[in-house]
């Protein structure tokens, strides 16, 4: 895997995604979720909203890198706020 630039931020990112998936699995076993409608125009479960949050974060980062010269941490903050709002009210 020498072709991949495994830096500490990259490793932390993938570890956080793995931890979030484990947490969502445990939550689903303890408190099963029911599909509900929120701000999104479709019925979603906790896992659906998490997946949509990951996709939204990718689009926010790509768009930020494509249209801005600012630091990437700004896109990360925007993505975290978007994910929190989608998980809560999505």
Structural write-up:
With 90 residues, this protein is mostly helical. It folds into 2 domains: 1-32; 36-90. Helices cover 70% and strands 0% of the residues. It has 3 helices and no strands. It has helices spanning 8-30, 46-67, 72-89. The chain is flat, with a radius of gyration of 15 Å. The mean pLDDT is 89.
Tell me the layout of helices and strands.
Elements: H1 8-30, H2 46-67, H3 72-89
In short:
Helix content is 70%, strand content 0%. The model has no long low-confidence stretch (mean pLDDT 89). It has helices at 8-30, 46-67, 72-89.
Radius of gyration: 15 Å
As a percent range, the share of strand residues is under 5%
Q: Shape, please?
A: flat
Annotation field: number of helices: 3
Tell me the distance between the termini.
37 Å
For this entry, give a set of tags.
single chain; 90 residues; mainly alpha; 3 helices; flat
């Amino acid at each position: 895997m020498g072709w991949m630039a495994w830096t500490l931020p990259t490793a932390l990112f993938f570890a956080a995604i793995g931890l979030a998936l484990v947490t969502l699995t445990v939550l689903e076993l303890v408190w099963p979720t029911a599909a509900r409608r929120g701000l999104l125009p479709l019925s979603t479960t906790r896992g659906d909203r998490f997946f949509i949050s990951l996709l939204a974060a990718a689009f926010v980062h790509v768009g930020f890198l494509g249209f801005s010269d600012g630091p990437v941490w700004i896109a990360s903050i925007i993505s975290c706020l978007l994910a929190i709002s989608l998980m809560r009210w999505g």
